[in-house]
Design brief:
Its EC number is 3.5.2.3. With 442 residues, the chain is an alpha/beta fold. The chain contains 14 helices and 15 strands.
Length: 442
């Protein structure tokens, strides 16, 4: 199978040997945290030294971390990157630079491009464009169905060979249960991961808010939460039938948490994600008809947000994603009901997650595991660990640093962030991809 992470020539001048010393090491996969050093050779972690490093190896470039946290780089499993066909919203170049600033070292791109990523040639195009233009790894997710139309399955074997890491129709759900059953069974033959958007689009209709007093008071059409649970429950029954690996791309409320919990207790090969927006925001953030807070599925009541945090800490929720969905100004400068859904999130994914950890809502180790080791493991990527012979995709972070996310500093091509002007916690001081600096804070 083709390596899904192609080397960017911008990273080709690797330093032969580097030493990150005086670091607060945290391996999210084990939860182990200790002062020490990391030695890097030819793009890989050569050694993780616990305790003081007696002396740096001869000829090594030494980076003194001055007590800052060193951890694996973030693996974002859900990001729309624009190319091909929507370069006016985002490009691989702009997205990768925003990602590097935010401590993301691997981006999993969704297939809702033009043309869609439903054939080997388009996977190859994205990988080659990323090789030439991106400064972080880009791992394409391919379409479950041809044209993202939910009818005819894509050629999973050829797509995997071309470098796809998983299969999804992005924000579209497969309504036909027979097609979804065939997709899971076909993917199982390759031990491939199916990432599905669990939402009954017919039941959601044109709903833009969660049912309740707020939606009624604002005069907004509601999208029932059952649209998520009905589709999720159907999918879990299909997992029982097929035995295929299934990942609910994003769950957003307490009822879905319980369905995933029961499936895991049953031993089904089921995992799930949650967006940072649904972990950090709630339905009251749309007050004033602020379209930057319009996302899909819509923001939920506070009790659902708290249930998601609890499920993340318990391990019921496996990964946190940015759900990066850039929209141009004209798509957001509309009445709330007509504005496009979506928010950018590459630069704020890690800082907002760290803010939640610093507030005691969830442990730091669990947050980092959900951002690094767990997504890397689900996708079969050789990163996400602070361990010998794994990829030297690393971040150096001052976890206590507080700063304000100003519009002028946004690197993404689109500027539709719900966190604009918000207080962030955790400053990424340095991002390394294959052992090479792709971001160093000024």
């Amino acid at each position: 199978m083709t390596n899904p992470l192609m080397t960017n020539p911008l990273m080709s001048s690797r330093t032969h040997l580097r030493a990150l010393i005086n670091a607060d090491l945290l391996d999210p996969a084990t939860g182990r945290r200790q002062r020490g050093a990391v030695l890097i050779r030819d793009g890989l972690i050569a050694e993780v030294v616990r305790g003081a490093l007696p002396a740096a190896p001869e000829g090594a470039e030494v980076v003194d971390c001055q007590g800052a946290l060193v951890a694996p780089g973030v693996v974002d499993m859900r990001a729309f990157l624009g190319e091909p066909g929507a370069e006016y919203r985002e490009t691989l170049k702009t997205a990768s630079r925003a990602a590097a600033v935010g401590g993301i070292t691997t981006l999993v791109s969704t297939p809702e491009t033009n043309p869609p990523v439903d054939n080997a040639a388009t996977v190859d195009f994205i990988r080659r464009r990323a090789r030439d233009n991106a400064i972080v790894h880009v791992a394409p997710a391919a379409a479950l169905t041809r044209g993202l139309e939910g009818q005819e399955l894509a050629e999973y074997g050829l797509l995997l060979e071309a470098g796809a890491v998983a299969f999804t129709d992005g924000a579209r759900s497969i309504a036909n249960a027979r097609v979804m059953q065939r997709a899971m069974a076909y993917a199982r033959n390759f031990d491939a991961l199916v990432m599905h958007h669990a939402e009954d689009a017919d039941l959601t209709g044109d709903g833009v808010a969660t049912p309740g007093e707020l939606a009624s008071r604002m005069g907004l059409t509601a999208a029932p939460r059952e649209a998520e649970t009905i589709m999720l429950e159907r999918d879990l029954r299909l997992v029982r039938m097929t035995g295929g690996r299934y990942h609910a791309a994003m769950i957003t409320h307490a009822q879905s948490v319980e369905l995933i919990r029961q499936a895991k207790d049953e031993g089904l090969p089921v995992t799930c994600g949650v967006s940072i927006n649904h972990l950090a925001l709630n339905e009251h953030d749309i007050s004033g008809y602020r379209t930057f807070f319009k996302v899909k599925p819509p923001l939920r009541p506070e009790e659902d947000r708290l249930a998601l945090l609890e499920a993340l800490e318990d391990g019921v929720i496996d990964v946190i994603v940015s759900d990066h969905n850039p929209q141009d100004v004209e798509a957001k400068r509309l009445p709330f009901g007509e504005a496009a859904a979506g928010a950018i999130g590459l630069e704020t994914l890690l800082p907002v997650a760290l803010r939640l950890a610093n507030a005691g809502s969830v442990s730091l180790a669990r947050v980092l595991d959900a951002l690094t080791a767990r997504p890397a493991g689900l996708l079969g990527l050789a990163c996400g660990r602070l361990a010998k012979d794994t990829a030297a995709d690393l971040i150096v972070v001052d976890t206590d640093s507080a700063w304000v996310y100003e519009r002028e500093a946004i690197r993404s091509r689109s500027k539709n962030s719900p966190f604009e002007g918000g207080r962030m916690e955790g400053q990424v001081l340095r991002t390394l991809v294959s052992g090479v600096d792709v971001h160093v804070a000024g």
